[in-house]
Specification:
heterotrimer, A mainly alpha, B alpha/beta, C mainly alpha, A: mainly alpha, ABC transporter involved in vitamin B12 uptake, BtuC, two-stranded antiparallel sheet, B: alpha/beta, Rossmann fold, 3 domains, 6-stranded mixed beta sheet, 18 helices, about 35% helix
């Protein structure tokens, strides 16, 4: 059976995005504008960055649901470090610390999973809960503002005509596509997810590969915070909360199998764009204020549809 | 030239059960060495020892004169021993290139990137040396079994492979694919690779092998030159065990038709299967692994949906694809894989025994622990299950006792038809005899019994009638009086004579 | 009790099945003892009853969650089901229905949500993590959509009694929970349904081949979670006198933490209601004491997160030792 579901899914999601754009543009011409495309991509950038790492984790048959809480912590720490009201560290130093913090938390997640043998859903659930507490502790019940302009440029600056967040996201995607397709490291990650037993027999360092994916996801989450938190004038408690749901959903919608071995970076990135479109679309369809309340229901509908499509696809693909 | 592989007095025991003992044999470079024996004769244990999956209980292995560190997969790999398993242990989501090279990829750019051009060229060369073409970018799951097998062989020979072990390589290949495989094997042989070829297909062995080693009941019986041997010689050497040992004893006249299967089809596994089993009758179902026997059983039991055909019990048709309906009507299945399908291993003996009658033992919606204990005790006694108490976890029991549990679990449900799929696979001789006695007793009590088995003496010894399946359909039926191992094998073996090229 | 055979050689502590519960109970007792020294007012009955008011939703939801996790499943959507049930309750009430009738409607909506989860898991064989992740978004989304995010209040005092009243000194939600916990414990330990749940959690295939109604039981446990979430929603609405689409956000994580802390294996097949009760109690007491003594709510999260991971790590350590 020549049924390559992977590619079908990417094309399907891309097609759905195109269809949405065409339909909404017909209803409201304002939708089809460079400015709007820019806004949508900026909004999708953090999700795309984190999805790159999460795809690798899920491909290896694990999961991480602590990214949202980690974003909250990274934002709080970043704020404390650079804000003129607090430590007022140089931006480069603060960014470095935040990236190290993200990687460090990823490392702890990874160690719990690989060395502690705690199931990843439990380990990252515990981490999620603990990190919410730690970031609340850091925020100490107030908000953080007064950021230097150089930090703001991460979020609102542009290189040429490309906004910095979009540029960073594209670089991450390209890097991860190269990693997954053209490096031994990436192919080994897929091998681990496809058949952990055979991977061990083939002498692959299964635990180290998993650890690496968790560390990478932690670092990417910190990076996503760097390009999104400074968009705001002040950082409040609860930043990033439930962000993990968007990313996990997007990765699954993008065709990554929760049982491992299958999934692509491009698919995940497209999944993030599709889910990020929903809000904008609801606004542009001018259905009134009430429509935006349906955003989450529609996002949930997307993932159910993706799951059903997967089911139908598997049936048609036969038992292979 | 000294032999490549020499084993000396290899032995393996699991607890008190001896799986293999006293194996001393040798394999030469450039030799195709066949390994035959019935199921459970110890072939897989030997394979696992050579490949380092299983640690030895006794003996030594040497490769090219050097002792092999046994019980270590990396050590065996480093010594150039590779196994191609029946079920390919490959990466189904990855393509041929990845599958051949993962773990030892050619690299470039300081080791950062895959050297795709080299991988491609190398894979092409390897596959072409096997007479196969490279299909890049297609996940393995989209390829045929034969293609997957060639890729596995290519992976094995991509490093310096001295001994290639092929475990039932032709089990699910078509005639043409077999020919391609044989040609590839001959090329490897010419290149000086030693081949250990494990197969039930005797014609293949006669056509391919230089020498044949026969295993029986965990011992190495003999090694002979293949030249001049014929099929009957091999069958005799394999069977060895006295068929009369399981004499059926008093054969009661079978009663009315209990189970009736009409035109049952589930393509591509089996087509148009029809037969009957009467009350008090033991019907054997013989055939090679992959002939579709287990699938027929699963479909009768309602675990799978048939495409066509019907199953009826005492003349009443069963609802297709409904296990609970089949059980309610009185069908019981002792599945082939008792560890994963027959039992819930982490649960206790008592819990496993009452699983089939759970709701009928309940009083007012609550479990009656005393009724459950009574059933458990009764079945443990009837089956002579050796366990300290019914509170012992099923996992801790020996294979034979586990099998008695599965049978006991079904007898608690008082079935009319009992289907046993490979009832004694991997069970020691003592427990085997007990299970045979039990099956006979149950039949004498009027149970209609269907025994699926690849073990010839077992089928011949137990059955009143033998059905033989070949490639998804019934190829013949033999009455007890006329059945001989040779006749059963003749009906079971693929008809077309493989025309293997002899080097 | 006398045992025979090889068992006599085994020391009693190897056969003792309640290690997890014992350790957990000792931890709770230790915590309460130190609390009574550090801050005597914390351990008074009055304080404890007062502090218990926001534990009941968590405790209620932990009961069906235990069943689900024993089947090797998971339900991330229960917080969202609660929200949807609450909104259905509120809107039916607003439309003029009797609040008790409205509560029934909410519970029915919750059950329907659970049935949807269960059918998708059992019939379409989709991983429960994915199914309930989807419905986590979808159910809350529907709640937000139909209520447009508005809070609904103004319930009569007769109804709010359900959340705030007491009966013989015991809070009414506590009574409801007590009855349900007993029923769940009996169901799990003493009914065919209960044993089937364990069997399915260990080995769904062997369960099917033994004639257990695997699909029906799977649907039932998720449906039960929906029903209990509906009930929890009614109690929450009654207590706060407000129905809004944001209630129960993140509650699923607390519930799963409590159940896993209580010794239920995330891989299915083992777990008990007693353990879950202790898990709920451990989380609740630790949390409340930390909040009470240090007066820092945010520490709660850290404590719960660390407790969860520590519980699993310790459990693994124990498993290795006793096996």
């Amino acid at each position: 059976m020549m049924f390559s579901f992977l590619r079908t899914r990417e094309v399907a999601v891309a097609g759905l995005i195109l269809l949405t754009i065409i339909v909404v543009s017909c209803v409201n011409g304002d939708f089809f504008s460079g400015q709007n495309a820019r806004d949508i991509l900026i909004a999708a950038a953090p999700g795309m960055i984190v999805a790159c790492g999460l795809t690798l984790i899920i491909v290896m048959g694990e999961i991480d649901i602590s990214m949202g809480a980690l974003m909250g912590l990274c934002a709080a720490v970043l704020g404390k470090l650079v804000s003129a009201d607090h430590a007022a560290l140089p931006v480069w130093a603060a960014s470095f610390i935040v990236l190290a913090l993200g990687a460090g938390i990823g490392l702890i997640n990874g160690l719990l999973v690989t060395v502690g043998k705690v199931p990843s859903i439990i380990a990252t659930l515990g981490m999620l809960t603990a990190l919410i507490g730690v970031s609340d502790l850091v925020m100490a019940g107030s908000t953080i503002g007064n950021f230097p302009d150089s930090l703001r440029s991460f979020a609102i600056g542009q290189v040429g005509f490309i906004p910095v967040p979009v540029l960073v996201a594209v670089l991450c995607i390209v890097a991860c596509v190269v990693l997954t397709r053209y490096t031994p490291l990436g192919r080994r990650m897929y091998a681990v997810g496809s058949n952990p037993h055979a991977a061990r027999l083939a002498g692959l360092p299964v635990q180290r590969l998993k650890l690496l994916a968790f560390v990478l996801t932690g670092a990417l989450t910190a990076l996503a915070t760097l390009i999104s938190a400074p968009q705001l004038d002040v950082i409040e408690a609860g930043f990033g909360r439930q962000f993990e749901l968007l990313v996990v959903t997007a990765v699954v919608v993008g065709g990554t199998s929760i049982s491992g071995g299958m999934g692509t970076i491009i698919g995940s990135a497209l999944g993030v764009i599709l889910l990020s479109l929903v809000r904008t679309v609801l606004i542009f369809l001018q259905l009134g204020v009430s429509a935006t309340y349906w955003e989450r229901a529609i996002q949930g509908g997307f993932i159910i549809a993706a799951v059903l499509a997967d089911h139908v696809g598997r049936k048609r693909g036969g038992h292979s | 030239m000294p032999p490549l592989i020499v084993t000396h007095e290899l032995g393996k025991t699991y607890g008190t059960v001896r799986a293999l003992g006293g194996v001393s044999m040798s394999i030469d470079a450039g030799e195709i060495h066949a390994l035959i024996g019935e199921n459970g004769a110890g072939k897989s244990t030997l394979i696992n020892m050579l490949s380092g999956v299983v640690a030895l209980s006794a003996g030594t292995i040497s490769v090219a004169g050097k002792p092999l560190l046994t019980g270590s997969v990396p050590a065996s790999e480093a010594a150039g021993i590779a196994v191609i398993h029946q079920e390919s242990t490959a990466f189904a989501h990855l393509d041929a290139l990845d599958n051949i090279f993962v773990g030892r990829e050619p690299r470039r750019c300081g080791g950062l990137l895959l050297d795709k051009p080299r991988m491609r060229a190398e894979a092409k060369r390897l596959l072409e040396s096997l007479g196969e073409t490279l299909q890049e970018g297609l996940a393995l799951s989209a390829l045929s079994v034969a293609q997957r097998q060639m890729i596995a062989i290519a992976r094995a020979i991509s490093v310096d492979c001295k001994l290639l072990i092929l475990d039932e390589p032709t089990a699910s290949l078509s005639q043409r694919e077999c020919q391609a495989l044989f040609a590839a094997i001959q090329r490897l042989k010419a290149a000086g690779v030693a081949i250990l070829y494990v197969s039930h297909r005797l014609e293949e062995i006669l056509a391919l092998a230089d020498r044949v080693s026969v295993f029986r009941d965990g011992t190495h019986v003999e090694t002979r030159d293949a030249k001049g041997l014929n099929k009957d010689d091999l069958i005799r050497a394999m069977v060895g065990r006295d068929v009369e040992e399981h004499d059926r004893g008093v054969v009661t006249a079978p009663g009315a038709v209990r189970l009736s299967v009409r035109g049952l089809t589930r393509a591509p596994r089996f087509r148009n299967v029809s037969f009957e089993v009467r009350a008090g009758e033991i019907v054997g179902m013989a055939g090679l692994v992959g002939a579709g026997r287990s699938e027929v059983a699963a479909t009768i039991f309602g675990a799978d949906f048939p495409d066509a055909g019907s199953v009826s019990l005492d003349g009443v048709p069963l609802r297709a694809g409904d296990v609970r309906a089949a059980i309610a009507a009185g069908v019981a299945l002792v599945p082939e894989d008792r560890q994963h399908v027959g039992l819930v291993l982490p649960m206790t003996v008592g819990e496993n025994l009452v699983l089939t009658v759970l709701s009928s033992l309940a009083r007012g919606g609550l479990r009656s622990l005393s009724a459950e204990a009574a059933v458990a005790t009764e079945q443990m006694k009837a089956m002579a299950v050796k366990a300290a108490s019914s509170a012992v976890v099923a996992k801790t029991l020996s294979g034979g006792n586990q099998q008695k549990l599965v049978i006991g679990k079904w007898l608690a449900a008082k079935p009319k038809v009992l289907i046993l799929d490979e009832p004694t696979r991997g069970i020691d001789v003592g427990a085997r005899a007990e299970i045979y006695r039990l099956i006979r007793r149950l039949a004498a009590e009027g149970l209609a019994t269907l025994v699926i088995s690849s073990d010839l003496p077992e089928v011949l010894g137990l059955s009143d009638r033998i059905l033989v399946m070949r490639k998804g359909s019934i190829s013949g039926e033999l009455a007890r009086a006329e059945a001989t191992p040779e006749k059963v094998l003749a009906l079971a073996m693929p008809q077309e004579k493989p025309q293997a090229v002899r080097a | 009790m006398k045992s025979s055979g090889p068992n006599t050689n085994e020391s009693w502590w190897r056969q003792y099945n309640y290690w997890h519960e014992t350790v957990l109970a000792m931890l709770i007792v230790g915590l309460l003892l130190s609390a009574s020294v550090l801050s005597p007012s914390f351990t008074t009955v009055k304080t404890q009853v007062g502090l218990s008011s926001d534990m009941w939703e968590l405790a209620l939801l932990a009961l069906p969650m235990t069943l689900i996790i024993i089947t090797a499943g998971i339900d991330l959507s229960i917080g969202s089901i609660m929200a949807l049930s609450a909104v259905v309750l509120g809107m039916t009430f607003e439309a003029g229905a009797n609040p008790w009738v409205a509560a029934m409607c909410g519970i029915m909506a919750g059950t329907a949500c659970g049935v949807f989860n269960g059918l998708t898991v059992a019939k379409l064989k989709v991983h429960p993590l994915i199914v309930t992740l989807a419905t986590l978004a979808a159910f809350r989304g529907i709640a937000e959509g139909i209520s447009l995010g508005r809070p609904i209040s103004g319930f009569p005092a007769s109804f709010t009694e359900l959340g705030t009243g007491t009966f013989g000194g015991v809070p009414i939600p506590g009574l409801i929970f007590g009855v349900l916990a007993l029923l769940f414990a009996i169901a799990l330990a003493r009914t065919p349904f209960g044993l089937s749940i364990y069997a399915i959690g260990h080995n769904p295939l062997a369960s099917r081949y033994s004639g257990l109604p695997v699909a029906r039981i799977t649907v039932a446990v998720y449906a039960l979670a929906g029903t209990v979430a509906g009930l929890a929603a009614a109690i929450y609405v009654a207590r706060r006198n407000t129905a809004k689409a944001d209630i129960g956000t993140g509650l699923e994580l607390d519930v799963i933490t409590a159940v896993v802390l209580g010794g239920t294996s995330i891989f299915g097949g083992s777990g008990r209601i007693l353990g879950t009760l202790l898990g709920v109690l451990a989380i609740h007491q630790t949390r409340k004491f930390v909040g009470w003594y240090w007066d820092r709510e945010e520490l709660n999260f850290i404590v719960v997160g660390v407790l969860l991971i520590a519980a699993v790590l310790l459990n693994r350590l124990f498993d290795k030792k006793t096996k």
